Structure formats: C-alpha cells, structure tokens
Amino acid sequence: KSDSDTYTCDVGDAQSRAKLVVQEIPVLFKKELQNEEAKEGKQVKLTCELSKPDTPVKWMKGNTVLYASEKYEFKQCGTVAELIIRDVRSVDS
User: Fold this and answer.
1) pTM of the predicted protein model
2) Which parts of the chain are beta strand (E)?
3) Please, what's the largest Cα pairwise distance for the chain?
C-alpha cells in the first residue's frame, strides 16, 4: 500500500507520469481460535494464525478490549498471534 503514488519517467525535456494504486489483500484467518479449558490458577494460551504477517491484532473478552498487564500477555511472530492469560479464574470464562 505504501508504494501507491505518482511515478515519473524523465528523459530530458519530456516526462511521462503514471499513478499507481495498490489494493491491499484482506487479512483472513488461516487458523481460527480454538476453545480451551484450564484449571484455576493455571495459565492458558489462545492462538490464531493470520494470512498476512505482522498484522495488528486487537484482543477482546466479550465487548471489552484487553490490554497487556500482569494478567494478559500478547505475542506475535509473523502470522501467529497469541494471547496468554495468567492465573485463570472462573470469571475469565
């Protein structure tokens, strides 16, 4: 997408211009989240795989956006995004 712009070919007194518009490929899930079970007090990891590497991911619990904290850790490497939930309790279901 960042390559979208006007390009110019200059040969002395003559110029030719063209506009390039790059259409982004939509990001899809290659591997969706799977249901997990964990014992209270333990840690659980939720993982998904995207079709495009390093795509920003927003994690949510219900309608609430999650933020990195002692409870929640986010990892992302290439196309794989992970949410680690520490010290799970019944309210985390």
Assistant:
1) 0.76
2) 5-11, 14-20, 29-31, 44-50, 60-61, 64-65, 72-77, 80-85
3) 75
Domain boundaries, the chain: 29-86
Per residue in 16-42, pLDDT (tens digit) is 999 999 998 899 999 999 999 999 999
What's the confidence (pLDDT) of residue 32? Answer: 97
CATH, domain range 29-86: 2.60.40.10
The helix/strand/coil state of 92 is: helix
> By three-state DSSP, how is residue 93 classified?
coil
Q: What span, in angstroms and rounded, lies between the C-alpha atoms of 72 and 85? A: 5
13 Cβ neighbours under 8 A, 6+ residues apart: none
Amino acid identity of residue 32, one-letter, is E
